[in-house]
Amino acid sequence: MRKILSAVLALCCFAMVHAQYLKPVKVETSLKETSPTEAVITFVASIQPGWHMYSTEEVDGPIPTTLTIETISGAKLEGALKHVTPPIKKYEEMFGTDVYYFEKTATFTQKVKLLGGKYVVEGYLKYGACNDQNCTPPTSVDFSFKGETAAPKAEEQSAAAEEVKALPAEEVAASADSVSSDSNVVTAPVSSEGSIWTPVIDQLSSFEEGGNGNSADSSLWQIFLLGLLGGLVALVTPCVWPIIPMTVSFFLKRGTTKKSSDAEKAAAKKRGIRDAILYGISIIVIYVTLGLVITAIFGASALNDLATNAVFNILFFLMLLIFGISFIGGFEITLPSKWNTAVDNKANSTTGLLSIFLMAFTLVLVSFSCTGPIIGFLLVQVVTSSIAGPVIGMLGFAIALALPFTLFALFPQWLNSVPKSGNWMNVVKVTLGFVELAFALKFFSVADLTHGWGLLDREVFLSLWIVLAALLGAYLIGWIRFPHDEEEYDEIGNVVLHPKTSVPRFFMALISFAFAIYMIPGLWGAPLKAVSAFAPPMKTQDFNLAPEQEVKPMFTDYEQGMQYAKEHRMPVMIDFTGYGCVNCRKMEAAVFTDPVVADIMTNKYVLIQLYVDEKTPLPEPIVVKDGEENSMISIGMTADVKVAASDGKKDYQYENTYDSNTRKLRTVGDKWSYLQSMKFGATAQPFYVLLDNEGNVLEKSYSYDEDIPKFLEWLNNGLSHYQTK
Questions:
Q1: Residue 467: pLDDT above 90?
Q2: Which residues contact 647 (CB under 8 A, 6 or more apart)?
Q3: E strands along 516-599, which residues?
Q4: What is the pTM of this model?
Q5: 355-401 pLDDT per residue, tens
Q6: Cα(515)–Cα(473) distance, rounded to whole angstroms?
Q7: What sections of 367-488 are H helices per DSSP?
Q8: Which residues face 450 on adjacent strands?
């Protein structure tokens, strides 16, 4: 048992580390001479789980994979870059079109015709990659191949010459270009103390919560706490709460009789405490194993696609709808009784650890009618959040469910003060049913937006939530009843038609009615910050009296923006974004349109918006060396590596002359991407950072999180720190 638990915890730790991986794609390049007159350049991409790399298809949005040849002589390209791996096609609602991408691996090939003699082919492959939270900036993979083949026969030379004559003038010039790729490289200013390019990674890490405002580690902790909350709720359901005292008493009294001596009773109590602890550990192992099974069945990539996949969202909608109806008393969801009987009989016929484990498994089966809907709701939330979500969520759920059995075994006197079973547990169950029905609508809304059905626009969604909140309040106050609610009787045995409302139910009803009233202005376009993360976007609102406020950046150039901030003594907000970044658009639609947020960003900060996928060429390329990103320096690519290739008949040789430690910045987007990685140690978008006008950090960084109050707090903290400097 201890080994199983250790393995589970190790897997959890691995998943948490893996979830923070921010360099998701590795591309290896090679050239193979398939004959004296032909060669193939191959690009093999290894893609981390949960990420996808876009294909070569040009669409209005994501960054496609493209090939650029900078220098070519003694050879010419044949055809275009082709993908060998079939891409996945998916409709992306944010872009309004189909996108094509790869998962796990992708292979691209480019055919090259060799004209005989020495040849040189230099250039770069550029690609974009995203997951369900972030996108990396457009990434370039440079290559440089040179080699020599035998001179072609006279008739082949004549045919090649005729082909060159038929080429456009600019392509002939490119083919004849044999100038070194370093000839256009310029040296950028080296960073010095006080420069706005000086790295501030240590400053970011010095803040209390670290760098990224919603890192993967933070997300996993939120999932763990959500699971913990789910387990605590499951404890007070009718299927679990009454079992606690019976189970604890069984462990403490097992193996004793009325005639047992005090020593025997003490030994039995000690053994009972041990068994109760093992019982709790067994519950944890069972539920965490369930999380591992869910991840294994779906796979990491599928789990990350669930957030926007219409089919899965419809399935989640139906599942939560069924669970919700079950909780309010429509029907019971139970496992086959023979399962419970078989496991219970097995537990009674065995001894030792196996017996305790089977007893825990019996609890899981018996309590399924109450815990099943809660687990289902929890898994729906966590599988769309992180590839490690099911494991971490189930760990939190299991700890909350198992802890009372151990604590009451250690302190049995506490059992005397816990509330007795009663109708209050059914009230908890029905309340959860209303919550599940409300969240079922959220998942149907995602599918509706993806396919553009228009069935659940914002005002329809809010109307249903208003009705559900009002009905929940009516139930809590006692105006409506459901099948499992117990009847109350007076002193002479008559049913009380209007039972008294307890104080806790009164306040819960008050909150529910207030929430319903709060949402009513949303029918006319009020932003409703408390539900903005769940409701459809404002653009689906047919009648809107509160038009959105647009935030426009003051600058799209880092140096110019910082110069303006210095002259006017203002703090700076940098928005690292991308044209193909889905979550960047979501942040702009859900957070930047808030009037208070827009006012602060526009009037109290110098907003600099930097697109890392901007394709405008730099006046001159800049070469930087990885591992020495404290400055931009000019470095030649001088490492020559000879590689042998074979077509099965004859061996050919080429030289890969590219130094893999160098990187060339060719476009404006390359420059801003380099700024983000060199100065802030980050690579994903969206990424927001607050600076003073000297380039120093004012607050921790912020990434994708549509929590408006949290974003406002972040902005105000930056202003406060700037004013105290």
A1: yes
A2: 32, 33, 34, 35
A3: 572-577
A4: 0.49
A5: 778 777 877 777 776 777 677 767 666 655 555 677 888 888 889 88
A6: 10
A7: 368-383, 389-410, 423-451, 458-477
A8: none
